[in-house]
Amino acid sequence: MEIVPDIKRAVERIRSAEKITVISHIDADGIASASIMLQAIKRECIPVVSVFVRQLEPLTIQHIPHDNSLKLFTDLGSGQQNLLEQARIPPEQVLILDHHIAQDPPNGTRYFQVNAQQYGEDYKKCSAAGICYLVALNMNPNNYDLAKLSIVGNVGDMMARESCRLVGIVHWIAEDAERKGVLTARTCLNCYGLSTRALHLCLSNCDDPVIPGISGNPQAAVSLLCKMGIYADEHDNRTFEDLIPNEVKTLSSQITEQMIANGEDTERLFSEQYFFPDEIEHTPLRNASEYATMLNACGRWAIPYIGAAVCAGDRGANYHEAEHMLRHHKSIIRELCEYILETGVTEHSAIQSIHTGNKYPDTIVGIGAGLALSKLNRDKPILILSEVSDEPEIIKVSMRTNEMAVRRGVNLQEALCSAASIFGGEGGGHNIAAGAYIPKGCEDDFIRKVNELIEAQLTAHTEKC
Ligand code: C5P
Ligand code: C5P
């Protein structure tokens, strides 16, 4: 399939609409995607409204207006075409810009979608915000400023994780944006919090890779930074971004030496990070990864509109609300991660599972599971179950794994979709991260089935090799 004609067709569909409803997902990529499209559409003076849903499912589909507007689905839709068909939304009123694995609707309605997974290797690591940006750029080359949101969405969806940098078409978007002054790409230590966290905390929180003597030991990180003269004293709290190039160089070689001396692989020690020169230093909006966390904090805690307002440039009341949400989000995710590790997971032959009941919102358990996985048995995908506050009969399932497991044949989307359909639920997502909603009461049988399916995937892959 060719992307260029599909993008042009998408642009035509947008241009010919009298009004548009943008329906998007509540995570960083969903909010960034919606914001790109909302801004591009407003610049064309086409009336547009925005709807965010935690996922397209029978309850949330009711939020889609029954009118003649063009329904523009971003970061969702491809996997839920059955619901669009069921809701009798005519295909000419639909445009899907997505990157989730597509599932055909049972009655064969053809919904037009530009889905990153259809266009070969260069688009494999392109999230919905990448596709939305390509559409926006085609609508008007002046939309190049929206590349910033595209990079935030991609980084939020972990498109830079495997290679420690963005790749394929999204790397091209970043390079082009850098030429136009929208961002600066820098090689940094592969840590989180480069703009806002004191450097010793940034280093001691690093777990990909584990830095011997430093990871998990902030005091040792302070001592090292003082010894190197990067910290003036032990109360210093400079960030990575504050370092001058020479300091980055000395710190990098010191840590590399330390890794090598301990026989550790340094391959993942550095990553390309994306900074936004138009944002204020030391704020979470200054780099793509922290910006994405802020959007997740808004979306996953039911205020996606605040995140979208920040994306549209609001640095007043909405930004302050987002900052507050970010602090809250981080502290609850930390608590959830500790809860998973302290409670312990149940080990099955091919997966590990845990039920968090009603302790944490279903919208964040997947993030916690993803973080906890790096401290658990990395060979086994993690499955986390949670109650859904406004739907007592439903259980939310989230699964996370890593690239290594994917290379061994694991496909979480496939496993969750098949298992959910057996129990009357709905699933979707990617091979590496997926989710589902299932009816309450079948949890144990569901876990057993998923375990069986993953085991079968691994066996099939071994036999193929
Ligand atoms: O909406 P969906 O694509 O947007 O969500 C992606 C989720 O999958 C995010 O929570 C992200 O952290 C996770 N993910 C992951 N590893 C990847 C890609 C995505 O854990 N390589
Ligand atoms: O909710 P969670 O972060 O665990 O979702 C992981 C991935 O699975 C996301 O990409 C999400 O969009 C997708 N998902 C889905 N259908 C569901 C639940 C999650 O496509 N019912």
Task: Describe the protein's topology.
Elements: H1 3-15, E1 20-25, H2 28-43, E2 48-53, E3 70-74, H3 81-86, E4 94-98, E5 113-115, H4 128-139, H5 147-156, H6 168-179, E6 184-189, H7 199-204, H8 218-227, H9 245-261, E7 270-275, H10 288-300, H11 304-311, H12 317-343, E8 346-347, E9 352-355, H13 365-373, E10 382-387, E11 394-400, H14 403-407, H15 412-422, E12 426-429, E13 433-439, H16 443-464
Parallel strand pairs: 1-2, 1-3, 3-4, 4-5, 9-10
Antiparallel strand pairs: 6-7, 8-9, 10-11, 11-13, 12-13
The structure holds cytidine-5'-monophosphate (C5P) (2 copies).
Structure explained in plain terms:
The chain is an alpha/beta fold. It has 3 domains: about 5-160, Alpha-Beta Complex (inorganic pyrophosphatase (n-terminal core)), CATH 3.90.1640; about 185-325, no CATH class; about 345-465, Diaminopimelate Epimerase, Chain A, domain 1. Helix content is about 40%, strand content about 15%. It is built from 16 helices and 13 strands. The strands form 3 sheets. Strands 8-9-10-11-13-12 form a 6-stranded mixed sheet. Helix 5 (about 145-155) crosses helix 10. The structure holds cytidine-5'-monophosphate (2 copies).
